[in-house]
């Protein structure tokens, strides 16, 4: 097909604004999927995606559409995730497109992630087609959406298309707008073959399958290709397109989006964002890929059964191919045995990876408390990066500890402004400025420590705003803060699984809560055991594990009190002696219970 009749576009929006439902209607309208095979959220392949109603992985699909001008167009669509944790998936989709449908929920208006995704698309130079979705809802407010489109996103309101993914309103208008407004594929006249790898997955039978967008030249089975970042050469086994299932084809030409099966078996050899070219006629310069993503949240993952360690290693290796933002390295813990230190983009990303390991690979795992990467500046030495509290240098050598911050854009109804500012202050944040978006909504720009938003910030934001608040954030600078390493001691011995880096003002509260929880969960021992939270040598909180006690006075009935006292003193001496030589064994499920309730 002529490249002037090809259009590459993606759908971008905030979470739950109807991207996947709209893509279902586009598939139906273009007869890409027959009515018999059609399912709701057809492009969401994972059970997890369907259960949660969110898109986790981008999904490409090729459609053929006969436009009003009588010509047949090839439309390559990519459905993208909306959650802030998966914005790297969105940026990769945008790199393979010339245009984007920007969805806005008619009832909720422009949200935080709508703005973030629109800016990503503007930065890539894409043509944006605004679509106001869900116009059939009783609570739809079209006038507000039009005004926000102009005021916040600076897109003319007359460009907007009114649609409903559920009832199929406006689908024909969207397809005509794609054909008329989005330009044909760019950079097709480059003299050598250049193909962008924007995603890949691992197949146990065929090896690595790369999702690719051809910018110039053609690629077919039997070609010898070269990966430009590493110079590695390999043979192409198969090429094809997505309809939406993989369909084998003869070749992929300029502007096409499809898959390439390369004779590569290792997940580490192919890099997402790489450029593929012909080995005998290589291109001089790579395609502008996308920047490497850096994990923001770290935690330890350990198998419940020590024998599952190798299975966990294989599972992480395969997930790493499908998910370039996941990083991991082996580590050991006295309490939990052998495991891996893993880096994620955020808490949802961490949750999804853990759930996929449990479901797809059948491995039961436990994760340690999530933490971030701190920079520790030492006296007369270079600063070091610490992502695990156990690796914190000696406090005497530390000059200052810097923590990562985020710049958050928080969209909320203005009635909840006071409560929201209280939450930001509680999390050690600063509100830099407030912008009024319209009569009912405001946008706060806040600077917050990343560590403080890890666990419950998003949940509390939703509960404060009755579900109407939304947040988008980007990583800010590192700043110095009064941080300390808090150890948990059981019978005087530190337990590495519970070590954490906390702000000094919150150490006592967190330490006390953790000690109480541990004292409840550790089973009673033969002698009294102290569970303590300590900063260096200073104990800041303490609780005791219950002790088992034999009733040594049971044989005494009546008689003088000194007989009972003598027996009790003898028992006391025995327990004292036992305490000096005794060891406390904490069962693994105690760790698991504490770590589960901590999340």
Number of helices: 14
Can you give the helix content as a percent range? Answer: 25-40%
User: Kindly, what is the distance between the CA atoms of the first and last residues, rounded to a whole number of angstroms?
Assistant: 53 Å
Main sheet: strand order: 2-3-1-4-5-6
Number of domains: 5
Overall description:
The protein is α+β, with helices and mostly antiparallel strands. The protein folds into five domains: 3-181, P-loop containing nucleotide triphosphate hydrolases (Rossmann fold, 3-Layer(aba) Sandwich); 194-278, Translation factors (Elongation Factor Tu (Ef-tu), domain 3), CATH 2.40.30; 297-367, 2-Layer Sandwich (Alpha-Beta Plaits); 375-481, Alpha-Beta Plaits (2-Layer Sandwich), CATH 3.30.70; 485-598, Alpha-Beta Plaits (2-Layer Sandwich). It is built from 14 helices and 30 strands. The strands form six sheets. A six-stranded mixed sheet has the order 2-3-1-4-5-6, sandwiched between helices. The longest helix has 21 residues, at 561-581. The radius of gyration is 29 Å and the shape is globular. The model has no long low-confidence stretch (mean pLDDT 82).
């Amino acid at each position: 097909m002529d490249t002037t009749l090809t259009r590459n576009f993606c759908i971008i929006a905030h979470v739950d604004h109807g991207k996947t439902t709209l893509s279902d209607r586009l598939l139906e309208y273009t007869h890409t999927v027959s009515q018999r095979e059609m399912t709701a959220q057809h492009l969401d392949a994972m059970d997890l995606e369907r259960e949660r109603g969110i898109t986790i992985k981008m999904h490409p699909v090729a459609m053929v559409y006969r436009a009003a001008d009588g010509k047949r167009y090839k439309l390559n669509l990519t459905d993208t995730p909306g959650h802030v944790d998966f914005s790297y998936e969105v940026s990769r989709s945008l790199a393979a497109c010339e245009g984007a449908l920007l969805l806005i929920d008619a009832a909720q208006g422009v949200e935080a992630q709508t703005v973030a995704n629109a800016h990503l698309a503007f930065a890539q130079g894409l043509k944006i087609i605004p679509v106001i979705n869900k116009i059939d809802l009783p609570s739809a407010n079209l006038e507000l959406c039009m005004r926000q489109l102009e005021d916040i996103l600076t897109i003319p309101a007359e460009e907007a298309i009114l649609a409903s993914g559920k009832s199929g309103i406006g689908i024909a208008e969207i397809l005509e707008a794609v054909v008329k407004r989005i330009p044909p594929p760019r950079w097709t006249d480059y003299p050598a073959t250049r193909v962008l790898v924007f995603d890949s997955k691992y197949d146990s039978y065929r090896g690595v399958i790369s999702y690719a967008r051809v910018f110039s030249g053609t690629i077919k089975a039997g070609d010898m290709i070269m990966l430009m970042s590493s110079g590695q050469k390999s043979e192409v086994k198969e090429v094809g397109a997505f309809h939406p299932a993989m369909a084998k084809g003869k070749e992929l030409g300029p502007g096409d989006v499809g898959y390439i099966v390369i004779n590569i078996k290792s997940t580490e050899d192919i890099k997402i964002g790489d450029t593929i070219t012909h080995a005998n006629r290589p291109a001089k310069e790579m395609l502008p890929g996308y920047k490497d993503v850096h994990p923001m949240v770290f935690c330890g993952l350990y198998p419940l059964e020590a024998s599952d360690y190798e299975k966990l290693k294989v599972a992480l290796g395969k997930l790493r191919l499908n998910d370039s933002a996941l990083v991991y390295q082996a580590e050991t813990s006295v309490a939990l045995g052998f495991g891996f230190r893993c880096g994620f983009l955020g808490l949802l990303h961490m949750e999804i990876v853990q759930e996929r390991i449990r479901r797809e690979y059948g491995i039961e795992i436990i994760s340690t408390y999530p933490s971030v990467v701190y920079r520790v500046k030492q006296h007369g030495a270079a600063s070091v990066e610490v992502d695990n509290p156990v690796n914190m240098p000696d406090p005497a050598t530390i000059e200052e500890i810097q923590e990562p911050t985020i710049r958050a854009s928080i969209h909320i109804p203005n009635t909840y402004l006071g409560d929201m500012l209280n939450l930001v202050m509680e999390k050690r944040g600063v509100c830099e400025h407030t912008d009024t978006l319209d009569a009912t909504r405001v946008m706060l720009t806040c600077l917050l420590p990343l560590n403080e938003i890890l666990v419950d910030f998003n949940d509390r934001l939703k509960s404060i705003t009755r579900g109407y608040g939304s947040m988008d954030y980007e990583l800010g600078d590192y700043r110095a803060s009064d941080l300390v390493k808090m150890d948990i001691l059981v019978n005087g011995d530190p337990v590495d699984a519970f070590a954490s880096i906390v702000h000094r003002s919150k150490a006592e509260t967190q330490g006390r809560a953790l000690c109480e929880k541990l004292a409840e969960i550790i089973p009673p021992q033969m002698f009294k055991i102290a569970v303590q939270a300590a900063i260096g040598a200073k104990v800041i909180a303490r609780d005791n594990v219950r002790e088992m006690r034999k009733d040594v006075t049971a044989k005494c009935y009546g008689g003088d009190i000194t007989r009972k006292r003598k027996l009790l003193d003898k028992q006391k001496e025995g327990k004292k002696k036992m305490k000096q030589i005794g060891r406390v064994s904490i069962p693994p499920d105690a760790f698991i219970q504490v770590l589960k309730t901590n999340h």
